[in-house]
Amino acid sequence: MERFDPGRQPSGRTPAPGRLGLVQAFANSFWDLDGGGADEWADAAGYGRWLAARGFGGGERVSEDDRVRAIELREALRRIALGHHDGVAPEASDMVVLNTAARSAPLALRFEPDGSAIHVPSGDGPDAALALVLGVVAEAQADGRWSRVKACPGPHCGWLFYDASRNRSRQWCSMEICGNRVKGREFRARRRGAQEVA
Ligand SMILES: [Zn+2]
Q1: How far is the centre of ligand 1, averaged over its atoms, from the C-alpha of 177 (Å)?
Q2: Is residue 198's pLDDT more than 50?
Q3: How buried is residue 116: exposed, middle or buried, by Cβ count under 10 Å (0-12/13-18/19+)?
Q4: Which range marks the domain in which residue 189 is found?
Q5: Is the pLDDT of residue 49 over 90?
Q6: Is residue 194 predicted with pLDDT exceeding 70?
Q7: Distance from C-alpha of 31 to C-alpha of 8, rounded to nearest angstrom
Q8: What percent of the chain stands above pLDDT 70?
Q9: What's the confidence (pLDDT) of residue 195?
Q10: Cα 91 to ligand 1 centre (Å)
Q11: How far apart are CA 49 and CA 33, in angstroms?
Q12: How many domains does the chain have?
């Protein structure tokens, strides 16, 4: 698997472009849709397999502590991406998670033939994976794409998607999966309310 492969998208939604695909795949290693989802990182071995599939090494060197740190970062990124719908400032506690990961992130800068600078991790293994995720987030902040990365607010969803729409108005992972369900729920709630009044 290519390192920046964003994976399959619900209902064929356009995936995050370029290197942001890694951040999307990182967050969407867990998709608990309706509580029936599966966490690819349910144990250290699973996290190791995910890392190995993306060329970060991993395998037997991945500890439970590595897995817990990765999940903390994953869920902090998801909460931050949820805030992108309304442009709200991130929680201080989530910044602590990012800064803790950044402190031990073995990152270097590399200049590409076109003159642009990208972050590259030194070495491999779990620390390199977290480092590269943070590096790609920083790149996306610099070029304005980070705020287009949103977490689906659907109940028990949280899928990280890329809002490529001109006016940045996308709400859901997909209309078919969460959009219509939530609209249906709101409709039923309104109807119940109307009946109570009548
Ligand atoms: Zn959703």
Answers
A1: 6
A2: no
A3: exposed
A4: 10-197
A5: yes
A6: no
A7: 12
A8: 94
A9: 59
A10: 22
A11: 22
A12: 1
